[in-house]
What does this fold into?
Amino acid sequence: MKIDKLSTKNESTWCPGCPNFMILEAVKKSINNPKNYAIVAGIGCHGKMYDHLNLSGIYGLHGRPIPTALGIKLGNPNLKVIAFGGDGDTYSEGMSHFIHAFRYNADMTLIVHNNQSFSLTTGQSTPTTQQGYINGDSPKGEINTPLNPIKLALASGATFVARANAMDLNHTTSIIKKAIKHKGFSYVEIMQKCLIFNKDMNELDKIMYKIPDNKNLSNANKYADQWNYNSKKGKMPLGIIYQTREPTLFEKMKI
Amino acid sequence: MVIHNILIGGKAGQGINKISEIITQVLTKYGYFIFNYRDYPSLIRGGHNFNVISVSDKKIGSNPTKFDFIIALDDNTVKIHKKQLNIAGSILNYKQFETLGRDSNIALVASLLKIFGIPKKEIISEVKKLKTKSSLNALEDGYNSQENKISLKKLNNNLKLMSGSEGIALGAKNSKLDFYIAYPMTPASGVMHELANSGNKPSLFQSENEIAVVNSALGCSFSGKSTMIGTSGGGFDLMAEGLSLQGQSEIPLTVYLAARPGPATGVPTYTAQSDLNIALRSGHGEFPRVVIAPGNSKECIEKTNEAIHLAEKFNTLSIVLSDKHIAESQFSFDTKIDPILKVPLNRKIPGKSIVRSNGYEHDANGNTIESAKLVEIGAKRRISNYKKIQKYCNKFQMVKIYGPKKSKNLVVGWGSTKSVILDSIKGLDVKFLQVLYLKPMSKEIKKYIESSKNVILVENNSTGQLGRAIREKTGIKIDNKILRYDGRPFNRDELKLKIEKMLK
It folds into this structure.
């Protein structure tokens, strides 16, 4: 890893070859004026972003990066705030915050590292794990079908929804840059492989394709429907799935 | 000592609080001390609500079991409370003014104040605030319906009448609090409402739940803003993990915990002192905290200021513990509040420097660590911070002692039982030790207990939670306990009898 002013001296505890290294690099490439940033991480493999980014921030609780980051933004609206969450973190433990974040539309960014698995706790199912996945909690296979967080975000009034592929550094970087620039709450889901757990879902690259930036809600819903998180079939659009401009929390609060 | 006790009863929505407000405002201006107790079930319209107003020429802070006047806004009030009327007492009944409709309330207020001999103009100025012409006619009707039986003299007292919630809110404002974050929950919401109507500072935010409240508050505080949150027991339980994050990350945080009877939903609009245990212990792991319990609205102002000051000075968790009885009752006071403590806000803040706060065990720069040596250093840092807090708190009134100095009889209590204990021991050979700091605890407690012959613990709960905390701190077990745990506060006449009985 390149040692620059955004890096820390902390030893990496990610597995060799983990796509989190790519996400880390994409985030670093997206940040200008680092002193003006504050980050929050939840708990899970994604959370180690905190350890490797020399930025102000809070290494918070599992499921709670969104409200913690919102608090930082409330306290100092001039800061650029990024919350990092995992799929278990955001869609399971912290789901209520995820939905409300779209309603508030605070000017901040959420990056969800989605590997469709609770990997750090040895690979149990998350809400976006495919049906049938055999793991420590479900020896006979996961019985439920996954939820579609992109659809949920759109239904919750999201003003910026994007999906990226961790392995595509340049595309991911361009999406994160646009998310940071967005006026309002920006949500970026980064699909990543886990090299250890739920490896069944590691060949999704085949169905991924890039879309042009989209500002049309009905097209956004169509994009959201193209992949159901449950199989390697269908098409998985990458890019800005939806962007619109609505009053931000601070415009509404007049602070 | 002059005391008049008035019960005002009716259905929710009939304007009981409005009537109380007129009476208490008029009598406060007339120089009389007031204690106003509110009793209401968890519903919006209907049911049976009542307020008990005690009016006195001396300081008073409790309600009795018997009343001198009953203002009945419905038949149910007469049925339920008739037995509690003193022999010489009288009932002012809505039926007398039935033709006035809703304005009968004003007529009843005017009747009562005429009995007290309050000049009509004093009442008019309060009623005028309601801005309806018909209420002035009702006032006239009511005033003319009674004779002046008790001539209350105008007293030269300059009194403030304030609820505990108003006190907490004022304490926060005095501390120049930047942010108050909450989710609605009785009886804590009064503070949020009070702050919402008091200008721009502190800023307010209502989160989606208490888990969001505590985590957002830590984020807000991290960004350099003094931050307070408020809730009751159930919401506080939800916050527990966040309190623990405070302990590890050492981001300053002040929590207002207004207790009500549990477990679970319990009796949500009534009172209890049953959440001292969670205030002292909630949150996993071992980390410092401060728990302070004010006993009336004046102490709410002062102790909230101390709590916010301590949170910022020591990057710690400060909990201000009250209950429904303090939060929603109104107390008069005539003395100045303690000088306002400045809240030191000199932390490093993001935007100006790189600030890293970590919920994992961490080194001094906020970097995650797991080595045995650094884990131990982290724990030692928290222990040493608590020792500093303990030492520093000695400059505050951690306990207060009342009553005859040489008495060998001691009542020990905390929080909302303060005022009723003071009212009950008047004329008795009994001292009262009020514990304000539950954590850290004053060393004085042991001395006071050891130098007394009879020690009685008075608490508004079923297990004696202060007794347990004192035993843990001092090794002394207090066997004589007077506990009330029916959701209602102690009444002063009832408590006096119990204390007397225990001393025989």
